[in-house]
Design a protein that fits this description.
two-stranded antiparallel sheet; mainly alpha
Amino acid sequence: MPLTSSLPSFLRRVGRPEYGPAGELRDGGADLKVGVAEAAADYIALVCGVLVLSLASNAAWLLLLVVPARASHWAWVNFLGPWFFAGGDDGSGSAKRRTGERDKQKALRRRA
């Protein structure tokens, strides 16, 4: 659980504002409701919940399997799935040909 113990300090560091030498605000700190900071906060909440539930049942530790399952789903939806199933160019130049035809039709409509 070293990751769990380092996450609160990570959130403090990311959310801390930075001030210039004259005391003016340079950076207000990162928004803790988006990106990696949000995932870190979610992980902390999950681990705390599992710790409390594990007082009642040893099977509560299985809830930690939600973390790799959610990460795998996120990776599939955002990166792997679109990469595997993207309709790529088949090499025949059909996409370029359609674009050229569409441009010609636009030019003809402008002339009329």
